[in-house]
Write a structure and sequence with these properties.
Strand content: under 5%
Number of helices: 6
Number of strands: 0
Helix content: 55-70%
Oligomer: single chain
Radius of gyration: 20 Å
Largest sheet: none
Distance between the termini: 48 Å
Shape: globular
Length: 176
């Protein structure tokens, strides 16, 4: 049991480490590339390109870790992992597992407020999923909403068990 929690901490830490290195590489690399090109200092241009490429490679690594974490999280929630790969369908599935109707996703199509609506809907879903994994509201806010790059890999590789009876419950449908 302890080894899975250590693995979860390692994957979450690895994601953060890649992310912390990623931003300086990309920003410094692009800065050097742009301004050294103007000054025709091709040594700095090459350095800028190398740093930017390292940053982009780390970005791909972070995306891969987060995608694998979402796959594993779907499997832990009783869904096929491939659902994590399909845009919008993964959000639909996440909403369904959180106890909300998946068609709530259609709210993002409302002009002018769609992006904000998506953020609010996903925060509601993350809170419910965190509760279904038995996490406290403090942990959920800290690691699933603010630092979700840490929370999702941790949940994916930890020993925490998904319990659909916890958290938000879907409303019973009234068939008249």
């Amino acid at each position: 049991m302890e080894s899975n929690n250590n693995k979860a901490k390692l994957m979450a830490g690895l994601t953060v480490a890649f992310f912390v290195i990623l931003f300086p590489c990309v920003f410094i690399g692009q800065f050097l590339f742009t301004f050294a090109l103007v000054d025709e200092n091709y040594g700095l241009v090459a350095l800028g390109v190398i740093l930017a490429c390292i940053g982009w490679a780390l970005d791909i690594a972070v995306c891969a870790i987060l995608l694998i974490a979402q796959w594993k999280l779907f499997v832990k929630m009783g869904e096929p992992g491939w659902k994590a790969l399909i845009p919008f369908y993964n959000i639909y599935t996440m909403l369904e597992k959180a106890g909300y109707p998946g068609l709530l996703l259609l709210v993002i199509l409302v002009p002018g407020v769609g992006s904000l609506a998506l953020v609010v809907i996903m925060i509601m879903a993350w809170i419910s999923i965190g509760e279904k994994f038995g996490k406290s509201i403090g942990w959920i806010v800290g690691f699933m909403i603010i630092l979700n790059m840490i929370g999702f890999p941790y949940l994916a590789w930890s020993d925490d068990v998904f319990n659909p009876a916890l958290g938000h419950q879907a409303s019973p449908t009234n068939n008249y």
